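Q: My labmate handed me this sequence with no annotations at all. I'd like to see what the chain might look like in three dimensions before we decide whether it's worth expressing. Could you predict it?
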Amino acid sequence: MGIKGRSRKPQIELASKFSINDYPCPSGGCLLTYKEFASKARDLVEHAEGISMRDIVLLKIGRHFRFARDKMIVGRNEEENKRLLLLKSFIYPHT
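A: Here is what I predict for the chain of 95 residues:
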C-alpha cells in the first residue's frame, strides 16, 4: 500500500476515507527508531538467555551500563528510582 517510513500521512488519509476518526495521536514512532532504546534492546538480545516482559519494561527506564556479563540500571530521577525499586520487589520479593 506504499506505507513506509515514519510519516503517518497515508494512514491518516486511509482513516479519513473510511470515516475513522478515533485513533491514537500519530506523534510517536516505534521505540526501536530511537538510537538509545535500540542499543538497549540489542544489548538485551545479545546477553539474555530468555527475554521476559519485565526485561522489555526495564529497557524504558533509566540508564543502562554493561560490565562484562553484568548489567546495572540507574534511574535518571527519583521517579525512575521508585519504578526500579518496585520492579525489583516483584523480581526479588524477599530483598
